[in-house]
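Aim 2 progress update. The chain analyzed this quarter is reproduced below.
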Amino acid sequence: MRAGSFKTCGVHRGQACSGCAHSRRTAGATYSGSLPFVIVAICGAVGFMQMENAAGRQAAGAPDSHELPVAHPDILRDGGGEERKAKNQLELKPFDAALWGELTDPSSGAPVTAEALRGKVVLVVNWAEWLPAGRQALTLAQQLAKSKGPAGLVVVSAHDGRRYAEGLAFARENAPDVITARDATSAFRTGLRCVQSPEFILVDRAGTLRFLDIERASVAAGVDLLLAESAAQAAEFPAAWKRRHLDSLFAAGRTRSMDHPVVMPVVEPPFTRPPQSIYDVQVWPRRSADLSNSGGAPSFVIAATDRWLTPPPATLEGRVVIIHAWNSGAWRVERSFDVLNDIQTTYPDDVVVIHISTGEPEQATRRYVRDHKTQGYHVYDARQDRVASMGLPVPQRNVSGDAVLASQTVAIVLSTDKAARHLGNVTEESFRRATDQILAVGPGIKARRAARKASGQ
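Predicted structure tokens:
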């Protein structure tokens, strides 16, 4: 490396650390021998410790200096530069209830208040009647208010303080299901750093500002996303998103990261899942007594509140899903990972292996995953409800060496119709045979592969 240049360090992975104290070099200085290796090694260690500390601060509720990425980047934000960054910082924060008081002369006759909107998804449209784009925005707002209102959507249009009589008349005629009010002093807009019209803003059922100034093309998708959440799920989302971000920083800063070899296509070609009648005539593995007696719900849905230790899978559609219940003290746990690693490697695009760790402190799970080769996806189940919902036994830590194998290395295999097809001990040969059979006959696998082939992927 030439004198005075900089390299990335373990603390700021993937970034040029030109101002970073961890990797700063004296301009014009040169080094030789093993010193650069020592510097890199120290930076890596510092990075790992910082990620550990970040996770610890988060668990303790302390603020973290890392800037959160925007949640749901598929909901496109408008604008760019420093102004966009400032708006991003307002997202996932409680909506300032005092701002509602800045809206006057509402079309409904009743003041717009946080109490009146409690438990609702709120779409706010900042607009001005004299702008064609503003009238178009209000037309979209009316469509959503009429079609999504019964599901819990309330639409509030905040008209510019000027020419409000014309704006109110237009709204009453063209958007009767929208609450229109006047932003007389522009205090409502400026409080949200919104200086242009139109602008679209979404507040979730918990009163959190989720999306600030998004593009028109993303408004309907944003509304649907928030309507699908309960108030409790909405309330938990900001903390869950922060945990997921810190966990990704933790994973990026480790000296030995957990493998994540599953590479799914960025855009899956659409495919139609075969009808259930096709699944019913397939020759599946013989149903085991354990599966018949498990009582578990044969499905796994990715939830916003899940504590993922890796990024979650992009999709489960059209793939066989293996749910593995484990902890680091379980009997023959290393052997179970060997088997599942091989399955995930053999079928990288057809299988999603999800390892659910439970029955031990989270830090014990992190240490094990850090120090061992694992493939697939990891989620931590603190309350053991994820394992219980699948009908899987809670793994017991092996203390005496006399552990019952069937209760400690068990996994359930779901076919692409989300039905449980096999439950068994991962380390037994019958488990691999059953998994191979499920993959061979699965109609959903065949349909997805055919769609991908037809699309040229």
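The domain at 81-238 is CATH 3.40.30.10 (Glutaredoxin). Confidence is low (pLDDT under 50) at residues 1-66, 252-261, 293-297, 400-407. These observations will guide the mutagenesis experiments scheduled for the next reporting period.
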